[in-house]
Amino acid sequence: MDKRVLSFTSLGLLASFAPSLQAQKDSRPNILVILADDLGFSDIGCYGGEIQTPNLNKLAENGLRFTHFYNTSRSCPTRASLLTGLYQHQAGIGRMTFDDHKPGYRGTMTHNGVTIAEALGSAGYNTAWVGKWHVAETPLRPDQRQWLAHQVHHDEFAPKDNYPLNRGFKDCYGTIYGVVDYFDPFSLVSGDKPVDTVPDDYYSTIALADTAVAYVNKYAASDNPFFMYLAFHCPHWPLHALPEDIKKYEDTYKCGWQAIREARYERMKKMKLFGDADDFLSPRQFSDSWDENPDKEWDARAMAVHAAMVDRMDQEIGRVIKALEETGQLDNTLILFMSDNGCSNEDCQLYSEGENDRPAETRKGEKIVYPRKKEVMPGPETTYASVGARWANAANTPFRYWKAMSYEGGICTPMIACWPKGIKQPKGSINTQMGHVIDVMATCLDISGTQYPAEYHGNKILPLAGKSLLPVFRTGVRDGHRELCFEHFNEKALIDASGWKIVWPNAKKAWELYDLNNDRSEMHDLSAQYPEKVKEMAARYEMWEKDYMVEPRP
User: Fold this and answer.
1) Cβ 149 vs Cβ 360: under 8 Å
2) DSSP label at residue 166
3) pLDDT tens column, 11-20
């Protein structure tokens, strides 16, 4: 057996090692929310992927997998919704972390919402944030290029009142900005203090897990439960991975995009991820041939680095779970794992270096190569590249499209829930209930017996948009959302509880209609066949825009 796969030892066997922990006074569950960044729907093994993810697979085997769980299609809006239980526009981040001077587009989380940490912290929980923040306005500076390379120092990466430490998290370690050099991250903080230097062997994914493990061990000695938000940077570009992890996949992707999509699809069918359906693989979105691809070597390496980043994340998640197990806390910890959006189609090597959050050189002054012509291989710190649209199409198998779009490839996330003491469904169940990241807050409140405040620190708090998943954990079903709505840079969608979905792709500027019950991958637009249904659903969507601060737009 792979030595990294955890045994999930019973608490009874652990009692002799941690007798004091068994007498914990507060019986409320711990909560660990793990968020991946730009992970494809089928990247991990338990959703059909070839990447080695034994620890996430083990969570799925001992818990639930959701097949209709949604995010907001992009990083910062998803994080704002997850943390507050509000739609992203209500939470202040309808687009990105720049202030567009409209109520739903302030570029930082509103104080008319509370974070999970603020709510649970007020109820006695220990609270920790580890990883990527990306929900505070990050204004640029005249010396941004030098700042990104750690060659000048500023004390604030964003206004500190919007740092995690001031939004309910007592223990804090991670980056305020959204994109990082994995070997030497910009905007790294401990508490609210900049971390000015890191060791030579630093790698973000490992460092975040080191911190999470330390917090788990610390909280084991507390009488109170904890809420931890562990937001990994990976596998978001740039493609940075450890050589030993890349080596495991050096030959895996030489077969090309289509072969990987088809293999993932066959595994999905075998595991009955979508029940007995056997016709849910959307056509590949590109007509070019791998055999005729002049950049096969570079492209295979790029996806190998992406896989290595996911693999390493799984290894480090395994260490966190092992710490929970060894301290006797695993059985009463709800673990949720999901992604902030689908895999990205971006070619970040085509962006301008030295701007926003993209460095042009290392701390030592080494030039970082943006391989616009694929002239250097991705992986080390001195390169800056991404997998691109063709691999994103494969990573999001069986769906179409990717990050920042409202098709399933942009908004549907793998979601695993594992809570040995609290989930009553058969282990390894696949659940088709429709859910959304706005439901995480409501779930945390429900299982902890915490009231959602009407006011907090003198601010009137907006009503929750999310609904608890606890009934799903207990019975497999719930009285869920009548509909879920999506909007990001005019990419729009509404999914009805009955399974109908309308999508407005900004480039087309017209509504499409799909029956997700019979067309899970949105291959057959039925808008011409059912114009009245489109009209009715579009009217509901427009009402949502007015009610949830999508309007006025910038």
Assistant:
1) yes
2) G
3) 332 332 233 3
